[in-house]
Amino acid sequence: MKLTELQATLKELDASPTKSLGQNFLHDRNLATWIVSQLDLKPGERWLEIGPGLGSLTSVAQEFSTNGLLIEKDDRLISFLKDRYPKLQVVHGDACRFDTRELLPGGPIKVFGNLPYYVSSQILFNFTTEASPATALLFTLQKELAERFAANPNCKDYGSPTVLIGRRWKVELLRSLPGSVFLPVPKVESSVVLLTPRPAGEFPDCDGARFSTLVKLGFSQRRKQLGKLIAPALPQWAEAAASLGLPVTSRAESLTVRQWCELAAWKPEQSQNSSENAAQDVHRKIFDVVDSDDRVTGQNSRFEVHRQNLCHRAVHIFVRNKAGEMFLQKRSRWKDVCPQRWDSSAAGHVNAGRDYEETALRELEEELGVRVPVREVTKITPCHETGHEFVMLYEAQHEGPFRLPPAEIELGEWFTPTQIQQWAARRPEDFAPGFLKCWEIWRRICS
Ligand code: SAM
After folding, report:
1. Are 173 and 147 in contact, with CB atoms under 8 Å apart?
2. Per-residue pLDDT tens over the stretch 49-73
């Protein structure tokens, strides 16, 4: 949009740019084209723009794909946007509070915006949550903030935001923008950053909640040595530092993102050995084989039970919080069955000689790190979806947070039943079939 066009539109709307909404409108068509082209949008590809304003970037994006969603806070602009872009979905709302879980049913999405500077950080963190389906995020930010997200260790810009975002996203500073391309001209300089998800396995797997806790503690006082600051979460810092090859006098800013991941994944030697043993044990597990009435007829190894499709037993547990949301886990990529699919809060096989309830309690402790009572919902008879398992479905109540074993679970998130239902209906391929069966039956009984 040219400057004259932009001024004419504002006049037509009888509006002027509002400082409290961070309104600086882009009036350089070449730059708008350059910005949007960084996303490499394909026809039909889904995209979301935060703060479209008068549509400088929107008009360019919709030339590539009309599968777009706009989130704009300024109520003066909503009918204008709806009239001008009838093919796009316009949401009147605050991008800081937008429930990004709502994006999951639509699948992968590219997100962009010339962000209002007063809330850039909040918006960026909101759209980079662990469960985010974004495949790219392209933002214009205040230059100083952009430099902080893209900073390298051992410099003043490198801080907890750099590390928190850096674990899952690669941040590239693409270019700076002169103030003169905006109306009104902002007092600060701007930079365009591109965030893309890091490939699985680039950094060691670790529990996201533990990672955040350590990073926030570590950067709480930059001048101080790390050991004392993170002691509440990692009292064995000296042992961890020695085994990871870090100086015991390290400060938070000297650790790379990879080293922060290693630190969050680190376990004392004893428990490291026990988790390795546990991983080996999976392959040696022995299950009871049962008949069509769930009576034990023999035993066989996990491998044979699955290979020969023998009937066996398993549990699924749906953990809900007081708000009625359900916690789902995303299975780790290391799982031999349904890697990276969303699944029940916790689930597992019943080992030979064990019963359903003790298995449910064990799974809650092993997968979520909690001990809570379970309530039986129903028993599901074996079928293709359950992998020839009798599944005893339980419910439990807990408010989180949970301690998730990274080798088993990539991440976890709370969802409302409506969100799960819409998501499962539109993208069943995102879920483990066993969960979908449990979900279908749970809905029939409990909702
Ligand atoms: N994209 C337009 C452009 O480049 O000309 C406008 C960019 S302007 C810097 C920021 C836009 O974000 C404005 O349209 C403003 O109304 C909108 N905005 C401000 N706060 C917002 C929020 N919390 N959620 C969504 N949009 C917001």
Report:
1. yes
2. 999 999 999 999 999 999 999 999 9
Query: Has residue 215 got a pLDDT over 70?
Result: yes
pLDDT tens-digit map of 309-364: 899 999 999 999 999 999 999 999 888 889 999 999 999 999 999 999 999 999 99
Distance CA 164, CA 255 (A): 13
Dihedral (CA of 10, 13, 14, 19) sign: negative
Q: Is 23 in the pocket of ligand 1 (CB under 6 A)?
A: yes
Mutation pick for ligand 1 pocket among 3, 71, 73, 177 (CB with most ligand atoms within 8 Å): 73
What confidence category does residue 155 fall into, taking pLDDT thresholds of 50, 70 and 90?
very high
The residue to mutate among 114, 120, 145, having the most atoms of ligand 1 within 8 angstroms of its beta carbon, is 114
Predicted local confidence at residue 280, as pLDDT: 55
**Can you give the pLDDT at residue 269?**
77
Contact (CB, 8 A) for 394 and 376: yes
Residue of the CA atom closest to atom 18 of ligand 1? 51
Q: Calculate how far, in angstroms, residue 116's C-alpha sits from the geometric centre of ligand 1.
A: 5
Class (C level, CATH) for 3-197: alpha beta
**What is the reported pLDDT for 281?**
62
Among residues 316, 315, 313, the alpha carbon closest in space to that of 300 is found at: 313
Q: How close is the Cα of 95 to the center of ligand 1, in Å?
A: 9
Residue closest by Cα to atom 4 of ligand 1 = 26
DSSP for 421-439, written as a single string: HHHHHH-GGGB-HHHHHHH
Q: Taking Cα atoms as reference points, which of 60, 4, 23, 25 lies closest to residue 180? A: 25
Q: What CATH number should be reported for the domain whose range is 286-446?
A: 3.90.79.10
- How many Å lie between the centroid of ligand 1 and the Cα of residue 150? 23
CA–centroid distance, residue 328 to ligand 1 (Å)? 33
Q: Would the pTM of this model clear 0.85, i.e. be above it?
A: yes
In ligand 1, the atom with minimum distance to the C-alpha of 96 is 23
Residue 21 CA: distances (Å) to CA of 16, 73, 118, 151: 11, 8, 8, 27
The residue contributing the CA closest to ligand 1 atom 10 is: 116
Q: Is 288 in the pocket of ligand 1 (CB under 6 A)?
A: no
Structure tokens at 174: 């693409």
The pLDDT of residue 278 is above 90: no
The CATH classification number of 208-266 equals 1.10.8.100
Task: Indicate if ligand 1 lies below 6 Å from the C-beta of 56.
Answer: yes
pLDDT > 90: percent of the chain: 89
Q: List the domain boundaries for the chain.
A: 3-197, 208-266, 286-446
pLDDT of residue 315: 98
